[in-house]
Amino acid sequence: MTDRMTYETESRRERFRGKVVIVTGAAQGIGRGVALAAAREGAQLVLADRAGLVAEVAAECAELKAQVAVVQSDLETYAGAVAVVDRALAEFGRVDVLVNNVGGTIWAKPYQEYEEEQIEAEIRRSLFPTLWCCRAVLPSMIERRSGSIVNISSIATRGIYRIPYSAAKGGINALTASLALEHAQDGIRVNAVATGGTEAPPRVVPRNPQPLSAQEQAWYQGIVDQTIASSPMHRYGTIGEQVGAILFLASDEASYITGSVLPVGGGDQG
Ligand SMILES: NC(=O)c1ccc[n+]([C@@H]2O[C@H](COP(=O)([O-])OP(=O)(O)OC[C@H]3O[C@@H](n4cnc5c(N)ncnc54)[C@H](O)[C@@H]3O)[C@@H](O)[C@H]2O)c1
Q: Which residue among the candidates 7, 78, 114, 165 is catalytic per the annotation?
């Protein structure tokens, strides 16, 4: 059996040397893992997040000798997305790779328990940042006739107790396939990783700051149980296992792959 990748793995490759890589939601979790791994592989980075904690990740990347720009912005707004792309263009002159990582279910419960505004909030969190950032980055990629976009989806497109999030990630899959079709002629590849359940350190920036009731904890456990049951490997993955797939699709190693959604969930196809 092969070793599981960890995001601390030292890379001997330099797939991103001389490439400008935007990572959204880079302050923690999978986004932080992508940022650190890309830094090890020589990327010039633009790290975007709503949380100021992203500055600490930028400092970690700088310790790895990466050039890094930080943008603190709300990517649920189009203006926030434009600010990130404008900063990348001002600092580095171009964008080679965009990793759209912002997202994550805010609530865990059966659909009939969601309030109207909660459904809207889930779509704003897990669909709009990717829609906005793709729209913001396209003109400069079309002009250069080059670019690679990786969207972070989820195997929750077939999962319980987070239906609005599932719908948002289904939207991510659709925009990935259609944007790839529309812009292959411009030299732009668009792919997605459908992330499975992923072990991560406790979140410094919570998705939902409210403490969970016993009922809400039971619903959350329902998600965990269903995720493990649906995966032939019956386990959660590591951040490194997600990062490996994301950076493969982002890199020139995937030069003949576009419009694909790659499930990374121990065999759960989503
Ligand atoms: N962790 C998992 O088990 C898992 C499973 C399937 C899919 N995913 C997907 O992977 C991605 C990353 O997940 P994670 O668990 O590492 O995320 P996380 O919740 O730990 O971190 C998300 C980051 O995005 C930032 N963010 C949130 N809203 C923002 C906004 N409006 N503007 C700017 N930044 C914002 C947060 O500050 C945070 O740093 C998400 O798209 C998620 O849906 C995660």
A: 165
Measured in Å, residue 106 CA sits from the centre of ligand 1 at: 10
Q: Which of 224, 2, 193 shows the shortest CA–CA distance to 108?
A: 224
Tell me whether residue 256 is one of the annotated catalytic residues: no
Burial (CB count within 10 angstroms: exposed 0-12, middle 13-18, buried 19+), residue 186: middle
Burial 204-233 (b: 16+ CB within 10 A, else e): eeeeeeeeeeeebeebbebbeebbbebbee
Instruction: Give the DSSP letter of residue 142.
Output: H
- What pTM was estimated for this model as a whole? 0.97
Separation CA 46–CA 26 (nearest Å): 9
- Decide whether any atom of ligand 1 lies within 6 Å of the 159 Cβ: no
Q: How confident is the model at residue 6, as a pLDDT?
A: 57
Q: Establish whether residue 237 lines the binding site of ligand 1, counting it when its CB lies within 6 angstroms of any ligand atom.
A: no
Residue type (1 letter), 11: S
pLDDT at 100: 99
Q: At which residue do the structure tokens 């030292």 appear?
A: 10
Q: Which residue type sits at 208?
A: N
Residue 9, pLDDT score: 55
Average pLDDT value for the chain: 96
Q: Which strands form 188-195's sheet, in the order they lie side by side?
A: 68-72, 44-49, 20-24, 97-100, 147-154, 188-195, 261-264
The CATH superfamily holding the domain 16-201+211-264 is NAD(P)-binding Rossmann-like Domain (3.40.50.720)
Q: Indicate the domain borders of the chain.
A: 16-201+211-264
